[in-house]
Amino acid sequence: MNMRPHAYADLARQLCARGFAVLRMAKIGPGTGSRTVDAALAATHTEFLTRVDVAAAGLTLLRSSLDTRPVVVAGHSEGAVVASLLAAGAEPAAIDGVVSLSGPALTIFGIMRAQIAAMAPPDAPPDLALFDRSVAAIRTGQTLPAEAADDPGTAMLAAMPAAAHAYLRSADRVDPVVALASVRQPVLIVQGGRDASVPVHHADALRAARMTLPTQVALFPALNHFYK
To answer: Residue 114: which domain range?
Structure first.
């Protein structure tokens, strides 16, 4: 996307400067620095939940390299959902806390729908019928409507290969609110006030779902999705 926000890198360096040991992991894909070392194994990593498997391997590496506490797992945006699932499924003693950085409160298709609606002119209600039909087709493994390729709200979905649709289906099955509410460890929710990708109301929903579980919220009104 020709974007280089370096959010993880900046946070890692700043935390290290304050005495924390940090293991950071990039989302796989072009431009991330990731590379395939086992093509057969990589071929099995086609669903969202395999990201949790990879994060679990990273946690094992970190804990085997250092015997210090506390151990905190942090994830940004989609990674915040991965962090929630990892902490909720891990042995309670393995992870001492979770940080949700710009974490969503909607599924992936819910976020896309909200972003398309937000682009509509103020005096014209958004027409989301084609988007909803396209998403319904992806969820059921069907072919998208022919007109989806020519509509700005669905053209990107229409251009994706079948493997990408399969990944989106798997990600859409995970409710981020339920995932974070299932975490028993203390949680810090970090949110930028100028975040156009995951607006502030997502943090509010995540906090509400936590109810009486130990939770803190850090809101930075002037910062965007990548804390710039």
So the answer is: 110-169
